[in-house]
Amino acid sequence: MVAVLTRPRMPESVATTGARLSVADVSHAFDIRGTALPVLDHVDLDLVPGEFVALLGPSGCGKSTLLRLVAGLEPQGSGALLVDGVPIRGPDPSRLLVFQDPTLYPWRTVRGNVALGLEARGLRKAQEARIDDALRLVGLTKFADAYPHQLSGGMAQRTALARAMVNEPRLLLLDEPLGKLDALTRLAMQGELVRLWHEKGFTALLVTHDVEEALVLATRVIVLSDRPARIRAEIVNDAPYPRHRDDPDLVRRRREVLEILGHAA
């Protein structure tokens, strides 16, 4: 593993209200017809409050599995997962996972989809204003009464983000949330994610296959090995925001990450 030379510095514009995440010696395997298929191999990772970390690695290496464990959607095989020192025992509205597919209910309006988390907790009537705040945050106030089939891909993903943000998560987990968007919409949404992070101050853990996206968004990039995933490198990225893709330092870091991934050519 390549050692981190320095701890990441949070941008001054980020009001740090996020959670601290500790992944301590976590291993995990899937049971495939009675045979254990190792997926994660003694992973150690700490996120400081308000940090934005990106996970890169070969397809199928275990990145999304790690997100699911942190989300509490399944128990880890061994090791410890802690948020602010408390073990993760299951899902919690303070830890939310946003998927590549927005998974919106087609019979619900944008407002209705955003309200799902509050409804499930019996809080919608008392906290309706939070839905308005979440819609404003992602720029969908005028589309509150629209249905999913009336939205573009970017707007649908904004709705999914608003559905997460209405719960005011302290840890936002992002599983390739921009992967299905066209190139221009993806660039715009990258800027939206940085803006949301700066405004709300949550801790973010992003899975992506896009090296440039990781470097544009994250304060630290974690490079994983082939399955079972181990941490091969940690690259601190303290470049100021907004970041530009033609910045020589970003280009240098991109080349470094590609070399670690075996794609130097």
Explain briefly what this protein structure is.
The protein has 265 residues and is α/β, with parallel strands linked by helices. A 6-stranded mixed beta sheet has the order 6-7-8-3-9-10, sandwiched between helices. The chain has helices at 63-71, 110-114, 116-120, 128-137, 153-165, 183-200, 211-217, 248-260, and strands spanning 21-32, 35-47, 52-56, 78-83, 86-87, 95-98, 171-175, 203-207, 220-224, 231-236.
Which descriptors would you attach to this protein?
265 residues, alpha/beta, Rossmann fold, 2 domains, six-stranded mixed beta sheet, four-stranded antiparallel beta sheet, 8 helices, 24% strand, globular, disordered N terminus
